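Problem: given the chain below (86 residues), write out its structure.
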Amino acid sequence: MLFTLKRLSPDPNTPLSFTVVLEDGSQYAVKVKFVAEVQRDDMKFIQVLNIIMANIGDGLKLTKLGRNFYDPMVRVHPTRSHKQIK
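Solution.
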């Protein structure tokens, strides 16, 4: 899935295609086609936003605790105490 703020092609009916060459010499043909535009007042907007936020959390290696995300590798240093929380 690819989410963008701007259209990649001026004509939504024409798919965008290009070739990607990797360092090992392998080639991949990539075709991107316009599927739909999600309006901010549409319920699908929240679903798309949740998918994006979940992918960001996975990419940053964050752990979900309840409704919040945190980094388990970072230690918290409280200001009143001299103890570290792991």
